């Protein structure tokens, strides 16, 4: 079904990603969503043999993400960019700040009345471009756009999870708990056991 909206973006800090497993912090609401663009880079090569194409192989590269939001809180800005908030409540950004790896989740309402729930598993957001304009004879909203680069996880090479609420066999517990924790197959089984 066609996507007719975008809502409820969440982020969760990636605490651990190695051959022993993966672990995330509790997801936090990012802001109200305006638009998003996800652009996976796929490198494809063709092997030619006997005077024609014989095989094709592809490799996933980085995934570029842009998400437009209504606003970004001071706490969320500091969290996503690795900045600090001083005792006066001021965000201090330094050249050595390191953005943490995070997961990004959101909901896509569908034209059939269902919804598609999505998690991108591992990425970092970059310092946003800032552009401002004075108010003229009509109001123009100036909203932030966050840009980031996402990659596959080391643990299992997964980069994305998604589920359509109208699909057959979808466990309602998975949908109900989608933003309680970043989706993991083991987590889904734990919900079933409860």
Kindly state the percentage of residues in helix: 10-25%
Q: Per the principal axes of the C-alpha atoms, what is the gross shape?
A: globular
Care to count the β-strands?
11
Span of the ends, CA to CA: 32 Å
Largest sheet: 9 strands, antiparallel
Relative strand content: 35-45%
Low-confidence stretches: 187-194
Instruction: Give Rg in angstroms.
Output: 20 Å
**Structural category:** mainly beta
DSSP summary: helix tally: 3
Element pattern in H and E: EEEEEHEEEEEEHH
Kindly report the average pLDDT value. Answer: 91
Quick tags:
single chain, mainly beta, 9-stranded antiparallel β-sheet, two-stranded antiparallel sheet, 11% helix, globular
Summarize the structure.
The protein is mainly beta and about 190 residues long.
Structural description of this entry:
The structure is a single chain. With 194 residues, this protein is mainly β. It has three helices and eleven strands; from the N terminus they run E-E-E-E-E-H-E-E-E-E-E-E-H-H. Mean pLDDT is 91; it is low at 187-194.
Secondary structure elements and pairings:
Layout: E1 7-18, E2 21-24, E3 28-29, E4 33-49, E5 52-69, H1 74-81, E6 84-85, E7 91-92, E8 102-109, E9 115-125, E10 145-150, E11 160-164, H2 172-176, H3 185-193
């Amino acid at each position: 079904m066609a996507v007719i909206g975008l809502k409820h973006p969440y982020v969760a800090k990636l605490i651990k990603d190695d051959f022993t497993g993966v672990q995330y912090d509790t997801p936090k609401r990012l802001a109200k969503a305006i638009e998003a663009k996800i652009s996976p880079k796929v490198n494809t090569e063709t092997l030619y043999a006997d005077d024609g194409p014989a095989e094709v192989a592809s490799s996933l590269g980085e995934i570029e993400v842009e998400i437009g939001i209504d606003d970004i809180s001071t706490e969320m800005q500091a969290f996503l960019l690795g900045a600090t908030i001083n005792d006066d409540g001021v965000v201090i950004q330094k050249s050595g700040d390191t953005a943490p790896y995070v997961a990004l989740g959101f909901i896509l309402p569908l034209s059939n009345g269902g919804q598609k729930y999505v998690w991108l598993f591992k990425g970092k957001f970059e310092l946003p471009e800032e552009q401002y304009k004075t108010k003229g004879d009509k109001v123009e909203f100036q909203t932030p756009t966050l840009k980031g680069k996402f990659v596959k996880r080391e643990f299992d090479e997964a980069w994305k999870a998604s589920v359509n609420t109208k699909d057959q066999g979808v466990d309602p517990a998975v949908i109900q708990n989608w933003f309680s924790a970043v989706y993991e197959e083991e987590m889904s089984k734990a919900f079933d056991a409860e």
